[in-house]
Amino acid sequence: MNQAIKEVLYSEEDIKKRVAEMGIRITKDYMDRDLMVIGILKGSVIFLSDLIRVINLPILMDFMSVSSYGTHSATTGEVRILKDLDFSVEGRDVLIVEDIVDTGTTLNYLMDSLSRRGANSVEIAAFLDKKEARTCDVKIRYVGYEVPNDFIVGYGLDYSESYRNLPYVASLKEEIYK
Ligand code: IMP
Ligand code: MG
User: What's the CA gap between 38 and 98, in Å, rounded?
Assistant: First the structure.
């Protein structure tokens, strides 16, 4: 195993089962609706590519790239759009797909922004939820797992752009990021 890894939290097999359960729920909930799945680059791409294959409905897939300003203690929640959507959300049932919710700043901004652009509904599917770190109140409809307030990598999540391709989810040793 990688030297930087403290603990493997979820194995490839765990993840596969959990994502399949999420897909079943989403399929039920979005039957006969106009589902648009929006992946937040880059962290969500692994989760999104697995999730959409267990959603048994037609979907429109799009991506956005955002970066949040300032520190984690900032509560103003200023978010900058680096890459906007290719398609309009107007009248569509939007499902934002995110790797992890930490402070909630990013998703708080995105929910608001996409609602104001005329989406019919906006919900969130987050693979991981770091609840303890939350500073903004966001309602997450679909959650894979709750994780401790550590630095998490793998399955799309990075530390300085590394570890995204680990097939499992793990916490990083503290000496790596502190
Ligand atoms: P938030 O706006 O504070 O909720 O930040 C969410 C974003 O921060 C996620 O999309 C991740 O890109 C990044 N992030 C937060 N916590 C972690 C972590 O533990 N590992 C990797 N990325 C993280
Ligand atoms: Mg990210």
Answer: 9
Tokens of 105: 């700043």
Average pLDDT, the chain: 94
- What is the best residue among 157, 173, 176, 178 to mutate for testing ligand 1's pocket, by most ligand atoms within 8 Å of CB? 157
Per the listing, tokens 């403290």 go with 6
Bridge pairing between strands 121-129 and 93-101: parallel
User: Is residue 44 in contact with ligand 1, taking CB distance under 6 Å?
Assistant: no
Helix axis angle, 45-52 relative to 12-29, nearest 10°? 60
Check whether 70 has a pLDDT greater than 80.
no
Strand order, beta sheet including 169-172: 5-10, 169-172, 152-153
Task: Please give the model's pTM, rounded to 2 decimal places.
Answer: 0.95
**pLDDT score recorded for residue 27:** 98
> Other CB atoms closer than 10 Å to residue 156's CB: what's the count?
25
E strand segments, 102-168: 121-129, 142-146, 152-153
Token code pair at residue 43: 């962290």
